[in-house]
Design goal:
Largest sheet: 3 strands, antiparallel
Number of domains: 2
Strand order of the largest sheet: 1-3-2
CATH architecture of the largest domain: Orthogonal Bundle
Order of helices and strands: HHHHHHHHHHHHEHHEE
Structural class: mainly alpha
Strand content: under 5%
Radius of gyration: 21 Å
Shape: globular
Distance between the termini: 63 Å
Oligomer: single chain
CATH topology of the largest domain: Fic-like fold
Helix content: 55-70%
Number of helices: 14
CATH class of the largest domain: Mainly Alpha
Number of strands: 3
CATH superfamily of the largest domain: Fido-like domain
């Protein structure tokens, strides 16, 4: 029987999808012919790789992930951790190269899983559906004999009815249903998140590949897993999960918009914006101006940690300090009042 996802589009979800559409169009318009788009694509790819592997326990930092992408060796890391990261880079390149694939088959899923999981599986075979029962926390996925038929139903839905939905919804549904089936013995989390991103590429939602969606899941892993489990508690109703994912897409697009506004400056100064610095930029965008004490409290760091975050942004000309030495506050350079206003 066909797969028919169950959900209700509540007012808050509809409003969020509409805001996402507006923000996405703003980003698409701003991304035309910008010289630093390749740098932003590279940065987004590294962020997705770091976040998706970190969710599964990979200990490498974002800076180490960036180093691996650039072919630099790491002084202290395990071969498996590095292999997981390099595999995920390869997996993202695979879905980028196949963004125009009209019909996804079992073989395409096998190839993506093989790329992501080769050499880093604890059980099972890369690129083959599982032949053993598995358990995920308190959840027991469908038995082995049901995996292939359920995946066929999911692929039929993805290649057909999914196109009638917003990509915000179809990618979230695909993500959840894949994890629910749990078709492989290992590597399902990474593969499911990559498939969700692949859907955004296929649907033309992330045309320039600028959206590091997996960061949202990684930054609050307990909520991510809780949101997945809640669907089962709700009897298969995906409404709450769709609202959770829509919030993630909205935050992701807001960050992409901020990166578009700052990367031109940071790329000229060779500054790689770190997560804490990006968090600070978002805070300044929302608050206008902030005192040093407000910044280190909001970031959850020491005074010195706050200054280590602030100083590179000052030197790059992305933020500025206004006021006296004792009462000075920080703001985005773009927030400076215009003449005559």
């Amino acid at each position: 029987m066909p797969y028919i996802p169950q959900f209700t589009i509540r007012p808050q979800l509809l409003a969020k999808v509409e805001r996402i559409a507006v923000l996405r169009e703003r980003i698409r318009a701003a991304a035309v012919d910008l010289a630093w788009i390749p740098a932003l694509q590279k940065d987004s790819r590294s962020r997705n790789v770091h976040a998706s592997t970190a969710i599964e326990g990979n200990p490498l930092t974002l800076e180490q992930v960036r180093a691996l992408e650039e072919g630099r060796s790491l002084s202290a890391s395990s071969p498996r951790s590095e292999r997981e990261v390099l595999n995920y880079f390869a997996g993202l390149r695979y879905i980028e190269q196949h963004a125009d694939t009209e019909c996804i088959r079992h073989e395409d899923i096998f190839e993506l899983h093989r790329i992501l999981a080769e050499g880093v599986m604890d059980q099972g075979q890369a690129g083959r559906y599982r032949t053993v029962p598995v358990r995920v926390g308190n959840y027991t996925p469908p038995p082995v004999q049901e995996v292939s038929p359920l995946m066929m139903e999911l692929l039929d839905w993805w290649n057909g009815p999914a196109a009638a939905l917003s990509p915000v919804l179809s990618s979230a549904i695909l993500h959840y249903r894949f994890e629910e089936i749990h078709p492989f013995a290992d590597g399902n989390g990474r593969t499911g998140r990559a498939l969700s991103l692949w859907d955004l590429y296929r649907r033309g939602f992330d045309t320039h590949h600028l959206f590091a969606v997996d960061e949202y899941y990684w930054e609050d892993r307990p909520l991510y897993y809780q949101s997945i489990a809640q669907v089962r508690s709700d009897g298969g109703d995906l409404s709450g999960w769709l609202e959770y994912c829509a919030e993630g897409y909205h935050q992701t697009l807001e960050r992409a918009w901020l990166r578009l506004q700052t990367l031109g400056v940071s790329s000229r100064s060779k500054l790689l914006i770190k997560p804490k610095q990006e968090q600070l930029l978002l805070l300044l965008r929302d608050h206008g101006e902030m005192a040093p004490a407000e910044i280190w409290n909001a970031l959850g760091v020491s005074r010195q940690g706050a200054m280590d975050t602030i100083n590179p942004l000052l030197e790059a000309g992305i933020i500025e300090k206004v006021g006296s030495r004792k009462t000075g506050r920080y703001r985005l350079v773009s927030a400076r009042p215009k003449k005559g206003v």
